[in-house]
Amino acid sequence: MTKPDTLTLLAGQISVPKMTAPKERDLHLEVTAEKVRAALQRAATPVDIVVLPELSSLDYSREAFSRLDQLAEPLDGPSFRVWRKIATQEGVFVTYGFARKNEGGNTICTAVVNPEGNLVGYYDKLHLAQYGASMEKEYFQRGDHVFTFDVKGFRLAPIICYDIRIPELTRTLVIDHKVDLILHCGAYYRDESFPSWHAFVVTRALENQVFFLSLNRAGENFGASLFCQPWQDDTTPMTRFDDTNEDFRTLTLDRRVLTRARSDYSFLEDRLDDHSIDLISG
User: Fold this and answer.
1) Which regions of the chain does DSSP assign to beta strands (E)?
2) CA dihedral in degrees (228, 230, 231, 235; nearest 10)?
3) What pLDDT, in 10s, does the model give residues 66-108?
4) 143-154 pLDDT tens trace
5) pTM of the model
C-alpha cells in the first residue's frame, strides 16, 4: 500500500476492439487483464486502485449495442470474474465498465471489486447521451442511484461520460456525500462535442475543489484522457494522456493538496445555503 494520506491510481486508457459476440468480449477481457497486470508490475509506486474507462468490456458501436442480448452481463458475469482475479492476485481495487443486464433492459455500468474479491458496489449511468456519435437512449435505461466507496480514507465516486455535463451531479457528490475524487469514465468519440470535453473536466474539478480523473478509451477517434487537481494553475499542470494510443498512468493523490486548495480558495464555504433568493427584475 502507498503512504498514509495518499492514494495511488493506475489509470488505463485502453483499446477496445470491435466485437459482436461473447467470445470476442471475453478474449478482450483476458487480453486487457494481462495488460493491467503488466502495468501494475512496472509501476514504480505500489498501486491502490485500477481505473478503466466506460464500457471497458465492450465496443462502443451500434453493431455491439444491437447484440446486447448476448453481450450484456449480470453483476457477477465475465467482467466481474476477470477483474476479481486481478484484484485478489494483485491486492488492488478495480473499477471497470460493462453493459449490465437489467430486468426489462440494460444499463451502462461502472462496478468496483476490492482486494478481497468482493463487489463493493456499482453505478448505472444517470444521463444518457443522444447526440453526435452517441445513441444510448436507443439501447440503455438510465440508472437510479449514486454510489460512493472508500479507499485508504479517500472517498471516491464514479460518474460516466455525459454525466459530467450535468453540474448538479458532481456538486451533490462533493457537498452531500463528501467525495474527494471523481472517477469520470468515458467513451469520448471525436465528434463535435469532443473539443469542449476538457473544459468541463477542469471546471468540475475547480468549482468543486476535488480530484478529477476523466478517463477515455484509446483509439484513433478517442484518447486524450485528463487528470486534474483540486486547484490548477501555471505551476500545477494537468496530466494529459496520449492523444490516441493506449496509455497507463500512475497517479498519486495527496490529501494535503485537497486541504490546501479548500483553505486557500473558499469557493465551497462561500456558497449560500440556498440560491433561490429574491429576484429584482428591471
Assistant:
1) 6-13, 49-51, 93-102, 105-113, 119-124, 149-151, 154-160, 181-185, 211-215, 226-228, 239-240, 247-254
2) -50
3) 999 999 999 999 999 999 999 999 999 999 999 999 888 999 9
4) 999 999 999 999
5) 0.96
